[in-house]
Amino acid sequence: MSERTLSLAQRRLALRAHCAVQRAELAEVVGEINERLGGIDRTLHVVRHYAARPVLIAGAVGVFAMIGPRRLLRWAGRSMVLLTAGSRVMRFLPLARQYLQR
Fold first, then answer.
1. How far apart are CA 62 and CA 98, in angstroms?
2. How far apart are CA 15 and CA 76, in angstroms?
3. Assessment of whether the complete model's pTM goes beyond 0.90
4. What is the pLDDT of residues 8-32, one digit of tens each?
């Protein structure tokens, strides 16, 4: 092989390695963007799902009017605490099962 051919082959290998690194970095960035936008997509899906049901919206407005905003916000806060605790327990259960099976 000539010196020029060898030099070009080495350059090609270096460029391919550089491209592989760039692809990996790009995949990581795209994954982070998808993670961030995934929550927005889920929220939009829920909003569209319930917006298509006007009876449900009217019922929610009625409940809001009858119960009152303060009590409803208090219940929502307590519900969020319970949901958070419940999700943590649900994440813990498979680990506990694995530990108990040993």
1. 47
2. 56
3. no
4. 999 999 999 999 999 999 999 999 9
43-91 pLDDT, tens digit each: 888 888 888 888 888 888 888 888 888 888 888 889 999 989 888 888 8
Tokens of 23: 């692809």
- With a CB cutoff of 8 Å and minimum separation 6, the contacts of 57 are 50, 51
Tokens of 45: 């899906």
41-27-8 Cα angle (round to 5): 155
Q: HEC string of the chain?
A: CCHHHHHHHHHHHHHHHHHHHHHHHHHHHHHHHHHHHHHHHHHHHHHHHHHCCHHHHHHHHHHHHHHCHHHHHHHHHHHHHHHHHHHHHHHHHHHHHHHHHC
Q: How far apart are CA 73 and CA 32, in angstroms?
A: 33
Residue 46, pLDDT score: 86
